[in-house]
Each structure stands twice: as structure tokens, then as C-alpha cells.
Amino acid sequence: MAKRSLKITQSEVSLKLNLKDIFGKSVPNRSIRERIADDVKTTIINRTLKGYGVDDGTPIKFVKYSPAYEKFKGQTNVDLELSGSMLNSILPLDLQDSDALTIGIANKDAPKAHGHTVGKEGGANVPKRPFLDMTEREIAQVQRKFQKEVDSIQRTTAKEAFGQKPSVAFTAEDIVRALDQLRGK
User: Fold this and answer.
1) Which of 35, 53, 94, 137 has the fewest Cβ atoms surrounding its Cβ within 10 A?
2) 161-171 pLDDT, tens per residue?
């Protein structure tokens, strides 16, 4: 699987990052996945506000606003921000899998994000300005920022958690008994 993949529909525009490809291993700690997702979101928003996007992994400068829209908005910098709702609606969509995370827009702002992503060629009434993606360089920055933390994660096996030697096999009955002990039954 590639390090990143996109989903572009009217109801969802999202970026899925393959954590196993990026870090060389799964990231079983959900709080680390949440922080990675937040860092990815911040990277995308900050780049977008500077007038740059990513098209199929390649960094691009956004197509200029029309003169009329520049006048309406009172600025020439293309930042895809009018009310702020579209960029602020970038959220973690799936953090359940320790091998991947997905962030994106899957709410009322999804059609707007879809339009910017596909542009006029895709039937939208705005030029193509894809923003919800990352370059290899941006992914490498995320990897460098979190690699030590990911490498330090110690997986606790069920055997270790229940205090039994790793050579002991567990049956379903053993697991139920251990869970009952934890619950105080």
C-alpha cells in the first residue's frame, strides 16, 4: 500500500495515511495516532492558508482568484478561506486501525472541498485547488517528528498483561476468567 491515498466524493474528501509504510511499524497507541492526525491537519491548513496545495503528491501554487472575487474578498492571496468552516471541518475520520489513519471532511462542507479538489474539470464552478493531501516531504516531516515516539511503544501482549509466561497458551476460558478477575467477580 502507498503511504497515502485519497477519497474524493461529494460526501467525503479524505486523506488516508499508511502508518506502517511511514513508520515501518503499526502505531498501536491511539493517543499518538491522534497527535499525528492533528499534526497532519495543522500542516494542511497552514500550507493552504499560504496559497499552496498538493495535487497527486506534488506541491502546487493555487490558481488565482478572479479579479471580481479578489475585490469581494479584499485580498489576492488564495487561502480557500471565506468563513473558515471548510478548513476547520478537517477532522480525524478513522483512528481505529493501528496501521493507518484517515483525516478529512465528511460533513456539510464536503461538497465545497470536493469542488476545490476536482475543479471545473470535475464539474465544479471553481478552478481546481486541491488542498487535502500531503507531499512526500510533508510526510517525511511527520515521520521525523514522531518516529522516536512510535519506536518507543512497547506492545503489551495479553500474556504479559495477565502475568503469565509467554509460553503458556490461552484458551477462551482463560481470557474470560482473567476478565472476570479484573472486574472483581
Assistant:
1) 137
2) 565 555 455 66
